[in-house]
Amino acid sequence: MPEGIGSDPRRRTSPARWRVLGHPQGILAYQVRCIVEHHDWSEPAAETTHKVMLGRSGVYRRRVNGRTALSDATAVLLTRPGDEMAVAHPFGGGDSYTCLEVDPEVLAERPDAARWLHEAGWEGSTDESLDLAHRLLVAEFRRGLDPFEMGERLHRFLDRLLGHVTGVRPGTDLDRAVGRRAATLAAHRRLADRAREVLAGTDFSLTLDEIAREVGASPHHLSRVFQRVTGSSLTAYRNRLRVRAVLDALAEADGPPLREVATQYGFADQAHLTRVVRDHVGHPPARLRALLAA
Predict the structure, then answer these.
(1) One Pfam family from the UniProt entry (predicted)?
(2) Within a domain: residue 156?
C-alpha cells in the first residue's frame, strides 16, 4: 500500500507518517502516525471531508470548533466538512490512529444518513470489542483484500461504530420495517435474488457499488438485506462462487500460474487467493491443483 512521510495526504494539522489501507469506491481508509516537532497548538485547519478517527496509541489534546478534549488510544471522533481542528502534544511522544474518510454521497445512501450528515458531530471511546474489531479490520486490509470485500467490511464496521457511539443498534429500522409489512420481506427476497443473479453471472471484477447500482439499491442497504435474507454476507457468497470457479480452473491441464488465476477471479493477489481458498476447502491452491489436475 502507498506510504509517505511529511504532510498527511488529507490535510492533517501536523506532520505525519501515513499508510493507505484501501480505497473502495467512496471510502478511503488509512493509518497515520503523528510526528511531534513541538508541543504547542498547531494552526487550526478546516476539515474538507467526513472523517472517522479511531485512536491506536499515544495521547494528545485536540480542539474541534473551539472545544478542547483529550484523545488517547481509546478515542473515536467524527468530524465534518467545515469543522476546525487543531492538535497539541504537551505530553511528548506521538500518536497513531486509523482514519476513514467517507464521501457524502456514500453516507447519503445509508438509512442512518442523518446521523452522519446532519446531526452534531460526535465523539466517544471504543470498548475492547470494538477496538479489536478495528485492529482486525486493519490487519485484513494490510494482508490484502479486493475492493468489493473492503467496501462491505467498511460499511459493516461503520454500522457497528455508529451503534456503539449513539447507542442505536444496527439494523433497528430494518427490523421494524420487516416486522410491519410482509411486502417488505418479499421485496427484500427479490432484491437478494437479483443480487445472486448478478453475482452468478459476473467475471468477479464488479465492485460492490456497481452491483448495488445494477440491482437498484445502495451498497449499505443491499449488504444488510442480503445478509438478513440469505444468512450470508455478499462477500462470503461471492467468495463461495469464486472458489468454485477457481477449482474448475485448477482442474485444467496446463492451467495458468496462480498469480494469473488470482487476477482473473478478482483477488487482491496470490496470497489473498491462497487464504480464501484454504479457508473454504482446507487446502491451498497449489495442493488442490495437484489433486484435481488430470
Answers:
(1) HTH_18
(2) no
For β-strands 60-64 and 123-125, DSSP reports them as unpaired
- Residue 203, pLDDT score: 74
Per DSSP bridges, beta strands 45-46 and 84-88 are antiparallel
Binned at pLDDT 50, 70 and 90, residue 52 comes out as very high
Mean pLDDT of 143-163: 91
- Kindly state whether residues 138 and 207 are assigned to the same domain: no
Q: Is 198 helix (H, G, I), strand (E, B) or coil?
A: helix
- Count of alpha carbons within 13 angstroms of residue 244, beta-carbon side: 8
Residue 198 within a domain? yes
How many beta carbons lie within 10 A of that of residue 183, not counting itself?
9
Are 123 and 62 found together in one domain?
A: yes
* Residues near 135 by beta carbon (within 8 Å), at least 6 away in sequence: 56
Q: Which domain holds residue 126?
A: 3-149
- Specify the DSSP class assigned to residue 55: E
155-174: average pLDDT: 74
Q: In what order do the strands lie in the sheet with 67-71?
A: 45-46, 84-88, 60-64, 67-71
pLDDT in tens, 264-277: 999 999 999 999 99
How many domains does the chain fold into?
A: 3
Tell me the three cell numbers of residue 249: 480452473
